[in-house]
Design goal:
Length: 218
């Protein structure tokens, strides 16, 4: 098993990179046959409920993440039970979005024991994290690029507040990524080179997997 966790603030390009990762994995004839992809809808802290953004409590979000990791745990136990002739051919490749770093930033004053335990389990499943970021000087343009019509009548104060929130959240994500046991690769997405970013992530993941494998003496 191996997998990637995509983290980053809105507009950083997580969806575009996710699509590029799926394409690369699908074109690799030696890649895993089983793929699990869970978008942020299944793991993020904020949820749109009837048109209103609702923030999960610490306990709710921790349980949500545990439930998602439980899926990987069950599949790992099943694979161990039946045995595998080829790890790549019969293994599992997974992609998660807005997961452990999102949790750490959302609940900075809560106990770290639970999330650290979860992170270690993900490390055991061959996980690495890709933190997607945007340069502060391009943040305003990126924020407005997705839905430009919504920003036409926005006041400069509102735009500045959105940019400041993005920059502050990125900084917080960067800090907690260094505290996590899960290896993290930070990628600046200013140039929107999604396929290249995905290749870099896969390359880093392969190196992480190689380093984690025990060497075999001859």
């Amino acid at each position: 098993m191996r997998g990637i966790i995509l983290e980053g603030f809105s507009h950083a390009g997580k969806t575009s990179v996710l699509k590029a990762l799926k394409k690369i994995q699908a074109l690799d004839e030696l890649s895993e046959r089983s793929v699990i992809v869970l978008s942020e809808h299944y793991s993020q802290v904020l949820h749109n409920v009837g048109g209103t953004l609702v923030k999960s409590t610490y306990e709710e979000h921790l349980q949500l993440l545990n439930d998602r990791v439980a899926i990987l745990r069950q599949l790992t136990e099943w694979a161990t039970k039946i045995g595998t002739a080829s790890r790549r051919a019969r293994g599992i490749f997974f992609i998660l979005e807005r997961f452990h770093l999102n949790h750490r930033v959302a609940y900075p004053d809560r106990s770290l024991y639970e999330i650290e335990t979860l992170e270690q389990e993900l490390v055991n499943y061959g996980a690495m994290c890709a933190l997607l970021t945007i340069s502060p000087e391009t943040a305003e343009r990126r924020i407005q690029s997705r839905t430009p019509e919504e920003w036409v009548n926005k006041k400069s104060e509102e735009i500045s507040a959105a940019v400041n929130e993005l920059v502050a959240t990125q900084s917080a994500l960067r800090i907690v990524s260094k505290q996590s046991a899960i290896p993290t690769l930070e990628i600046n997405t200013d140039h929107k080179e999604w396929d290249n970013y995905a290749k870099d992530i896969i390359g880093k993941l392969d190196k992480v997997i190689q380093l984690s494998e025990p060497s075999i003496g001859v």
